[in-house]
Amino acid sequence: MTILDTVGRTPLLPIFEGNKGARIFAKAEFFNPSGSVKDRAVKGMLVEAIESGKLTKEKIIIDATSGNTGIAYAMFGAALGYKILLCMPANAGTERKKLLKIFRAEIIATSPLESSDGALLKAREIYNENPDKYYYPDQYNNDENWKAHYDGTAVEIWEQTDKKVTHFVAGMGTSGTFTGTARRLKEFNPAIKTIPMQPESPLHGLEGMKHMATTILPGFYTPSLFDGEINVSTEEAKKMTKRLAEELGLFVGISSGANVLAAVKLAENLTNNEIIVTILCDSGNRYLSNELWD
Prior knowledge:
Blueprint: E1 12-17, E2 23-28, H1 38-52, E3 60-64, H2 68-80, E4 84-89, H3 94-102, E5 106-110, H4 115-129, E6 134-135, H5 143-160, E7 167-171, H6 176-188, E8 193-199, E9 230-232, H7 234-248, H8 254-267, E10 275-280
Parallel strand pairs: 2-10, 3-4, 3-6, 4-5, 7-8, 7-10, 8-9
Antiparallel strand pairs: 1-2
Helix pairs in contact: 1-2, 1-5, 5-6, 7-8
């Protein structure tokens, strides 16, 4: 047994109940070993690469990250004996950088003005210069990313709600969590509504989330799965994040607060005891330096 065997089967927690009867639940993904939902995709990508022979001990794993995926790469790389090289915006949080160093991952800082797109382009450049030296999972275009949620997250939600989930709401970075979960839930029941949360503008503070209209689109981004869209501001998300800590004892990141806020907004328009599920992406422990907690 390795640390990878502890990924998934996270609890589904009751969050809020709407004034008109809709109930909101959230998958507590901070129970994954590295502390975030990204463990699912990274496990899927690495296991497939090892089993297919694309990843050998001689190769360095390289990818772009804004934090959580990189931490999962670093932890699992340490456990399995692989070197990790990560391209990451220079303004990424102090806690995430420290975690990467704990697991001895190497970091290449990219321009904060280019956000995660700059990190993605840098990782591609390094890989293309010497493809024999590296294994490049490319989390934005690797189908094992969304398949991890198709085979895992969605099945868990279906079982944990006794097949009664009616709505799924989540933000998108690579869009893997949303795409895989939404696709499988709709196969279980085509009446289930799957709705993405989006930052309301390109300049936002929702770590790990992308404003899809102004970014490089992931290869498996699938708008046909969208049943509407809910826009959230950073300030609203911060208030909800604090509320989760103060009222429910859930210390999570701001993207988790944004997801819950989107679910609350959705619940305001529902009246028939619907069951809404969203994602608590990660723990708040890796955001302690954020001014929100000053």
